[in-house]
Design goal:
heterodimer, A: about 220 residues, 10 helices, B: about 325 residues, alpha+beta, 5 helices
């Protein structure tokens, strides 16, 4: 297995893999300012500095809130989830090791996991199921007032790039990715809820994510 | 490695895993493969990084600023409390979540307490199989049932104890929030009362205004509002030079018979401004002038220093 995969893996097999890409073309780490500042905040949090937690909150609470609203819908839940997410970040700051994707990815992983748990616990998947992506509103929305303008601009830029990449995806692939990411459905659950054959779901998931990766890397290189 | 997946299946699996959508059995297969395949691990990493950016595709919904401020202050209060408690007590091991272990059924035992929301679980990206297999999933045999039951009771006891502890923790958090809110309320009320008193003192019908001109080139100025009906004196000063260490400004009420009554000491803020309030009963026609001098910190019974600002009281209109 291992041999078979390694022999042609990076070449023909994974056609979208590009060895010449920058070390981390897919995340905010490309922005030295935000990533560096986040790392410093995490170190201060690990040392027990609450003001660093406040600064991290100011920077990322809007993103975290947007994600949990998308997943859990209910506004009261969402605020509680945001609070719990940052509290968990505070408690685990010492264990954070500059993961790929940086602090924002780490926070979102915590928030998403908590929000999905909450939805499952409540047994209501009604959530935001039918809610379409509203790119006009989100792309043009003002940055949160409590971020510094530079951070807000960088975050807004990332948001716009991701939105553009998502819009380029065929609708069925986009929907499959959204069901997995925002609804926490497994592939067989997606097949069940959409009535599609499992094989189709798998293909859409793969094609969608590979195209997304491609689009995001190209946009990143344009900016670099 | 007999039932190795086809490449196409492998690519499907990597993408699904990147969005946590892989079903349990396939996931086990993939994890086994990843353990020995650097290329696939690297591929998964980049797919995961792209998947993580899906977060940015959520419609932008920042919190209402006022509510966000509330969440923020609660968060910081909880963090501070957390820090205090963890410095005193060693962190407790995480309570196993109910339903994590379908292999063990505790007949006759009450259900385990619900996992309290304040216990922060380790981050697991998805609901699927935990990487750590709990000890309690050992095969059941009739001979060890009593031991299992005893162990289960112990686990239950520990669980209930921790749940109770976490409830106490939550109660303490709520009490703390309440007290913080109460303190803020008292502080705000006090400030409002002070402002109301200031406004009343300078806007009363009988309030007299004494303008004071600079007595030296730095152009400091002051204005005294005196409401004889309440004996309230409110003094505003601007452009006062900073005072040296160990020195303060002192306010004087000077009567017609040249009595110099000390009315408080103060230091101006960085911009040279100061507000002084005092209550002192003085006959309506007794005031001749108001002055400020620089004195040793704490003030003196009689002025000794240079006059910084001074002004004569105009005759009362009502007399």
């Amino acid at each position: 297995m291992m041999g078979a995969c390694a022999a042609d893996g990076a070449g023909s097999n994974f056609g979208t893999m590009n060895p010449s890409l920058p070390a981390d073309p897919y995340s905010l780490q490309g922005h030295a300012t935000v990533a560096d500042a986040d790392g410093a905040l995490l170190r201060r949090m690990a040392a027990g500095d609450e003001s660093a937690l406040g600064a991290l909150y100011d920077r990322w609470s809007a993103l975290v809130h947007s994600v949990v609203v998308r997943i859990a819908a209910d506004a009261g839940d969402a605020e509680e989830l945001v609070e719990e997410t940052f509290l968990q970040a505070w408690r685990q700051a010492g264990r954070y090791e500059g993961a790929r994707g940086g602090v924002s990815t780490w926070l979102v992983v915590i928030a998403r996991s908590r929000a999905l748990d909450r939805v499952r616990l409540a047994g209501h998947r009604r959530a935001a199921a039918a809610e379409p992506l509203d790119s006009a509103e989100s792309a043009g929305a003002l940055p949160p007032a409590d971020s510094t303008p530079l951070d807000a601009a960088e975050i807004a830029e990332t948001r716009q790039i991701v939105h553009a990449a998502m819009e380029k995806l065929p609708a069925d692939q986009r929907e499959t990715l959204e069901l997995a990411y925002f609804k926490g459905l497994s592939q067989s659950e997606i097949a069940e809820s959409t009535g599609l054959p499992l094989g189709t779901v798998k293909t859409r998931c793969r094609l969608g994510l590979q195209k997304l990766r491609e689009a995001l890397s190209v946009l990143h290189e344009d900016r670099a | 490695m007999t039932n190795e997946p086809m490449h196409e299946e492998l690519r499907d699996a990597l993408a699904a895993e990147a969005v946590d959508a892989l079903d349990v059995e396939e996931r086990e297969q993939l994890l086994a493969h990843l353990a020995g395949c650097a290329a696939c691990s690297a591929e998964l990493e980049t797919l995961r990084a792209s998947a993580a950016l899906l977060a940015f595709s959520a419609p932008h919904r920042p919190m209402d600023p006022a509510r966000s401020a509330g969440v923020r202050s609660r968060l910081l209060a909880r963090a501070a409390q957390d820090r205090e408690s963890t410095t005193q007590i060693a962190p407790a091991p995480p309570l196993p979540a109910p339903g994590d272990d379908p292999d063990v059924t505790l007949i006759g035992a009450p259900p385990p307490p619900p996992t309290p929301a304040v216990v922060a679980p380790i981050v697991v990206p998805a609901r699927r199989e935990p990487d750590v297999i709990p000890i309690t999933s050992a095969r059941r045999r009739p001979s060890i049932l009593p031991w299992l039951a005893a162990a289960a009771s112990l686990v239950l006891l520990v669980g209930v104890g921790m749940y109770a502890a976490s409830l106490r923790g939550r109660l303490a958090t709520v009490e703390d929030r309440y007290q913080t809110a109460e303190r803020e309320r008292f502080a705000l009320e006090r400030r409002v009362r002070e402002r109301e008193a200031t406004l009343a003192a300078i806007s009363a019908p009988a309030t007299r205004v004494i303008e004071m001109a600079a007595a030296r080139p730095a152009a400091p100025s002051g204005r005294m509002f005196w409401d004889p009906s309440t004996n309230r004196w409110t003094f505003f000063a601007h452009n006062l030079p900073a005072v040296r260490e160990g020195r303060e400004y002192q306010l004087w009420l000077i009567t017609a018979d040249q009595q110099k009554i000390p009315a408080g000491t103060f230091r101006p803020d960085a911009g040279g401004s100061a507000i002084v309030q005092a209550t002192y009963a003085l006959a309506a026609d007794a005031l001749a002038a108001v002055a400020v001098t620089e004195e040793p910190a704490g003030g003196l019974p009689q002025p000794s220093g240079e006059v910084v600002v001074a002004g004569a009281a105009a005759a009362t209109e009502e007399e």
